[in-house]
Design goal:
By secondary structure, this protein is α/β, with parallel strands linked by helices. It is 49% helix and 16% strand. Strand 7 and strand 8 form a beta hairpin. The chain is globular and about 60 Å long. Bound molecules: NADPH dihydro-nicotinamide-adenine-dinucleotide phosphate.
Length: 448
């Protein structure tokens, strides 16, 4: 073993011994380390500075009780988290997730990924993530509001314009950000820059709701073009029907692709005429309904229970936009047998290690989450800039910035992969480009 592989193995063992039960966090770290050997071979100074052990330990972990009253007057208790992972290049930045599966392992995996994603955007933002095991499904508006107010009562002690700026993630959209911001304002005063994803009338940015989905389509378009392909005439499978999926459907369709599926955690729809963006938006954003409703409304669509990635269905491009580990090795094989030439990730870590290995073995183009879905956080950072300048840019202006940022992320990943002799490996390229930026900032700042 070389000094580099020795070091990577040693640090991974330390992390595994420290947090043996944090499966998602260990998976994210393991996947990341697998791409780091060429960097540590060329830069022994990172080993001397023990940069990886420092980088994998969050600067701060905050866990708190969130008591709230349900509509029947019963006291309920959830667990809240904020992981302030790394501030080497700017204030902690990353979303809040409300989903029953949320635990410290999931928040740490998301926060770890966020460090490098944020670095790739080229904007001055560090990495953080938070959330709660609260389940918003089936809750009334008043229950959501009471939960958000209680959550923010505690979280407000730890966030701020120049320290930590949360945003949305699964289960947190415009409604929740509004309640969270309202409570922050009552407690600490109007400070628009403390949350992003706000409504337009109180400091939000045009194109923020669209940003992750559009950004995913722009990134994928770059990846396809670099390989003499394009969206035109291609059949595209998308999972999820939330914020990311909805706007990915819209932009992919505009770029000439035909999206034939989308899904939720119960099942998926197939529409051979192409999924109609307006109908999905109406069902999910306005009515807060289920994706099954789409098939009840659109004659050309059929509904099926289960995961979309088990369907035998011809498509060229797959864009997973639901959740972590939605594609395992077996599902990846189905997706490849279905004819997939490219996978780009809208969700965070939707492909498990066996799935990634299967794509690589089959020569499928693979755009990893931290590069492909960075558009959301990039526009969040642009929202912070607009708040600081007390200006609102037009939709076109924000969208143009977004497009340029996604093109630059792809170009940086290609350049880093070339520099470290792993050309065409966009996963290694993204990891290396993000890592070197953060590591160099940490080295410059001394032992932090
Ligand atoms: P939403 O809550 O808006 O939508 C999530 C979608 O994924 C829903 O359709 C949901 O179905 C489905 N889903 C969630 N959990 C599961 C599960 N366990 N199994 C199957 N389907 C599931 O979230 P977003 O669209 O915002 O987020 C989706 C993904 O994109 C997440 O991985 C998130 O971290 C990532 N992401 C989001 C960004 C953003 O700006 N919003 C930025 C970057 C990444 P159901 O309604 O049935 O739960």
């Amino acid at each position: 073993m070389s000094k580099a592989t020795d070091y990577l193995q040693h640090v991974y063992t330390v992390i595994e011994q420290r947090d043996p039960h944090q499966a998602e966090f260990l998976e994210a770290v393991h996947d990341f380390f697998q791409t780091m050997t060429p960097v540590f071979e060329q830069h022994p100074e990172y080993i001397d500075a023990n940069i990886l052990e420092r980088l994998t330990e969050p600067e701060r972990v905050i866990q708190f009780r969130v008591p709230w009253l349900d509509d029947a007057g019963h006291a309920r208790v959830n667990r809240g988290f904020r992981v302030q992972f790394n501030s080497a290049i700017g204030p902690y930045k990353g979303g809040l997730r409300l989903h029953p599966s949320v635990n410290l392992s999931i928040v740490k995996f998301l926060g770890f990924e966020q460090i490098f994603k944020n670095a790739l955007t080229g904007l001055p933002i560090g990495g953080g993530k938070g959330g709660s095991d609260f389940d918003p499904k089936g809750k009334s508006d008043n229950e959501i509001m009471r939960f958000c107010q209680s959550f923010m009562t505690e979280l407000s002690k730890y966030i701020g314009l120049d320290t930590d700026v949360p945003a949305g993630d699964i289960g947190v959209g415009g409604r929740e950000i509004g309640y969270l911001y309202g409570q922050y304002k009552r407690l600490r005063g109007a400070d628009r820059g403390v949350l992003t994803g706000k409504g337009l009338s109180y400091g939000g940015s045009l194109a923020r709701p669209e940003a992750t989905g559009y950004g995913l389509a722009y990134y994928t378009d770059e990846m396809l073009k670099a390989n003499d392909l394009s969206f035109k005439g291609q059949r595209v499978a998308i999972s999820g029907a939330g914020n990311v999926a909805i706007y990915a459907i819209q932009k992919v369709t505009e770029l000439g692709g035909k999206v034939i599926t989308c899904s939720d955690s119960n099942g998926y729809v197939i529409d051979e005429n192409g999924i109609d963006f307006e109908t999905v938006k109406q069902i999910k954003e306005v009515e807060r309904g289920r994706i099954k409703d789409y098939a009840d409304r659109v004659a050309s669509a059929t509904y099926h229970e289960g995961s979309v990635w088990t369907a035998q269905l011809a498509y060229d491009i797959a864009l997973p936009c639901a959740t972590q580990n939605e594609i395992d090795g077996a599902k990846a094989k189905t997706l490849i047998a279905n004819g997939t030439k490219a996978v780009a990730e809208g969700a965070n870590m939707p492909s498990n290690p066996e799935a990634i290995a299967a794509y690589q073995a089959a020569g499928v183009l693979y755009g990893p989450a931290k590069a492909a879905n960075a558009g959301g956080v990039a526009v969040s950072a642009l929202e912070m800039s607009q708040n600081s300048m007390r200006l609102s840019w037009s939709f076109e202006e924000v969208d143009n910035h977004l497009k340029t940022i996604m093109q630059t992320i792809f170009a940086q990943s290609v350049a880093a992969a070339d520099e470290y002799q792993v050309s065409g490996d966009y996963l290694s390229g993204a990891n290396i480009a993000g890592f070197t930026k953060v590591a160099d900032a940490m080295m410059a700042q001394g032992l932090v």
